[in-house]
Every structure is written in structure tokens, then in C-alpha cells.
């Protein structure tokens, strides 16, 4: 398998001049292509911070993050923007859809920024709305969609540019049980059929039960890393 994410000795420190607080503390993490992995742990454990470091939304104080062998910690701010645009899909718990755009326009927005031709955009959007089972909602604006539908659109938007992987920060936190289950069904199907790599930050037991690998953080450190075997999890060394 190909290594997509390779974090080496990564730390993020706050209050460096007084009493340092390690949001992420000397983390080593490897994610292979096609994984369906959950980062779990109590509030303040460093899950979202680690996701932000991997996604290039923040820079580590120590260590390096490699995406497909490219050290993104060496990139400038503008280079990081361009890199994220072309390589990483993001799904946030607050959906972050643009309210004045239709569902279709939200999904194709990234491709517009990339300069993708209209014919290719149209074909990709059609495929994605079929995959998220919302063919009849393409011209609807976010305010007219349920929370679960908005998050499906957010997933489609994250996949529009065919990213190397998708980072999902508490994607089911604002959803009811049925909507969360439907969303997870869609992401699991995309992972299985298209080998899309997903890395979640989550408290949600429903996500944890679906993940094929569960990584637990406490006080910014990885304390356990479990990989699924059949329908069970087997402890592996960190």
C-alpha cells in the first residue's frame, strides 16, 4: 500500500513563553491509501489540532508532515493554499456551505477555483450527486436542506477535486441518528468502492464502530492504535 500521510515527531505548543501546553506532543502517524481511520479521545486531547496540522491549516512547532512524500511544513502560506486546493478534501461539523449558492454550485466551487472546464465539472457533479443520493436536490440552496443533506453536499464538495484524502472533523456531530447513519453509509461505500482515504476526528461511537482503524489521543499523545480484523479490533503497537 502507498503511504498518503506521514507525520514525524509532530508537536503543536501553546503558551511557549510561560508554561508550555502541548496540544499535540511528539506524534508519529502513518496513514495508507484507502484507510478509514478515526482519531478519538476526550475534548482537548488534540484530535482537531492534529487534523489541522495534517491538512496544512496550521503548522507544527516541531516535526514534519509529509503528504505523498512532500513535506508540507516547508511550504509557504500561498503554496499551502494551492496544495490544499489540489490535494485535500475537508468536511467540517458546521457544514460550511456557501448559503447563496445552490447545492450544485457549492460542490463545483473548488473545481471553479482549479480552472476545471465546464463539461468536466458538470460530469463530476452529476456523478457525485448520484453517489450521495441527492440527484433531485442540485438546484436547492443550503437553507432548504436538512442537516444531513447539507453534510452530504459537504462530502460531495470535499470529493469534487478528487483529493488524495479527506479529513473529516466531527462530521456527524450536528446530525440525528438516521442522518449520521446515512452519511456514514455513503462515506464507507466511497471508501470501499473508490478507495478514498478518510481520516476522522470524532467523539461519535457510530463513526468509531465503522472505522477500520481507531487511534486514541490523550493530552496530545497517541496512547493506542487499533486496527480492525474482520469485525473486531486488534491492538497494534504504536
From TrEMBL:
Entries under Gene3D superfamilies matching the protein: P-loop containing nucleotide triphosphate hydrolases
UniProt KW Nucleotide-binding keyword: yes
Q: Which residues form the ABC transporter domain?
A: 5-238
Entry keyword annotation includes Transport: yes
Which InterPro entries does this one have? AAA+_ATPase, ABC_transporter-like_ATP-bd, ABC_transporter-like_CS, ABC_transpr_LolD-like, MacB-like_ATP-bd, P-loop_NTPase
Q: Name one Pfam family in it.
A: ABC_tran
Record-linked SMART domains: AAA
Q: GO CC annotations?
A: membrane protein complex; plasma membrane
Q: Which CDD domains does this chain map to?
A: ABC_MJ0796_LolCDE_FtsE
Keyword vocabulary terms for this entry = ATP-binding, Nucleotide-binding, Transport
Gene Ontology MF annotations: ATP binding; ATP hydrolysis activity; transmembrane transporter activity
Q: Which SUPFAM superfamilies does the UniProt record give?
A: P-loop containing nucleoside triphosphate hydrolases (SSF52540)
Q: Which domain of life is it from?
A: Bacteria
What family does the database annotate? Belongs to the ABC transporter superfamily. Macrolide exporter (TC 3.A.1.122) family.
- Its name, as the record gives it, is ATP-binding cassette domain-containing protein
